[in-house]
């Protein structure tokens, strides 16, 4: 594949050298186009040595090959990393002030931006408007990572790690992990959800809530958050902006998401309501406690000298999924697609599938991902098996079943979500 790697003028430009190496070692031909400002951080000689191609910033070099037109036309993928606030603004405005912005205007294939800048720059309304403009035109703008920035500051605006950009950018061009591993054998896998959620905002809840009993103890559950994190990564790879509402996790937060951290069911409820109006897809994969202690003791509950056992009264937590569905119905706004999760055990009264179907009807969501859970099932494991239920399923029919790693299931679910969105919101 022929890739153009645009490099913006930020200190994170040094990371793009590792990104370039990842592309070339995967067998891709990479033409680097730095901005003039970026050469103050990484020189042209470095890019030429690592890419094996001559490098220029000017439209007046290699005029005989009409470089400013040819490079964009020939590229199968254009990746801009880091994409500074200035570069995003110039791209959104359609300026052609150097070789890179000329090439962006001539692009025929996917265009992928990996932003890097200070938090205030990223959050500024002008930058957010430019990002929205680029996404509306079909470009994929990855969410920046959160972390240590230049100097002592921390926050969103950090360039995602090269491995994450590499995977997401190739996904944007329609290259799956299976295709990458089989590239040397020229065996391609054409099934991919890549880029299908470009311009969409996906909100994913993940992890298990913790309901405090006293300053030391809480009621919790066995959820690790692995499935939710995998869904967030799959949605990012499909080009979406991902808002990640995380309760307790036993897995790293995916790089590139907008992170919202919560602890309790009530905090998660507030975060979901705040996000619902500005999201296209809501995926409720968090394990939300059904009950919480009626009282949260201000001091540690101690064993009594008389040997009496404490009495703990539980109260019901709100049904966040059902509320989201009801709010959408009442307001006529909100997510176009709401996906619920159901962790069931089954019992003598009904099977896991029967309980799942009842829950789908009761909740009213658009899709329900059902799995059987237990001490050695699903929670904390890397593999899973789910069934995807829909109100459109024919009575008595077997729902779609998916098994494999949680990453595999996440990619399949994101593909299904894209299909449902295509059906609900046809292109005009």
UniProtKB/TrEMBL annotation:
Cofactor: Mg(2+); FMN
Stretches assigned to the DNA/pantothenate metabolism flavoprotein C-terminal domain: 197-419
SUPFAM superfamilies assigned: CoaB-like (SSF102645), Homo-oligomeric flavin-containing Cys decarboxylases, HFCD (SSF52507)
Region Phosphopantothenoylcysteine decarboxylase, annotated ranges: 1-201
Details of cofactor binding: Binds 1 FMN per subunit.
Residues of the Flavoprotein domain: 1-169
One function term, GO molecular function aspect: phosphopantothenoylcysteine decarboxylase activity
Catalysis: reaction(s): N-[(R)-4-phosphopantothenoyl]-L-cysteine + H(+) = (R)-4'-phosphopantetheine + CO2; (R)-4'-phosphopantothenate + L-cysteine + CTP = N-[(R)-4-phosphopantothenoyl]-L-cysteine + CMP + diphosphate + H(+)
Keyword set, alphabetical order: Decarboxylase, Flavoprotein, FMN, Ligase, Lyase, Magnesium, Metal-binding, Multifunctional enzyme
InterPro entries: CoaB-like_sf, CoaBC, DNA/pantothenate-metab_flavo_C, Flavin_trans-like, Flavoprotein
Sequence positions that bind CTP: 290, 300, 318-321, 341, 359, 363
Pathway(s) the chain acts in: Cofactor biosynthesis; coenzyme A biosynthesis; CoA from (R)-pantothenate: step 2/5; Cofactor biosynthesis; coenzyme A biosynthesis; CoA from (R)-pantothenate: step 3/5
Flavoprotein listed as a keyword: yes
Enzyme Commission number(s): 4.1.1.36, 6.3.2.5
Residue span of region Phosphopantothenate--cysteine ligase: 202-428
Pfam families cross-referenced by the UniProt entry: DFP (PF04127), Flavoprotein (PF02441)
Function of the molecule: Catalyzes two steps in the biosynthesis of coenzyme A. In the first step cysteine is conjugated to 4'-phosphopantothenate to form 4-phosphopantothenoylcysteine, in the latter compound is decarboxylated to form 4'-phosphopantotheine.
Family membership: In the C-terminal section; belongs to the PPC synthetase family.
Family matches, as HAMAP family: CoaBC
PANTHER family for this protein: HOMO-OLIGOMERIC FLAVIN CONTAINING CYS DECARBOXYLASE FAMILY, PHOSPHOPANTOTHENOYLCYSTEINE DECARBOXYLASE
Name listed for the protein in its UniProt record: Coenzyme A biosynthesis bifunctional protein CoaBC
Originating organism: Arthrobacter pullicola
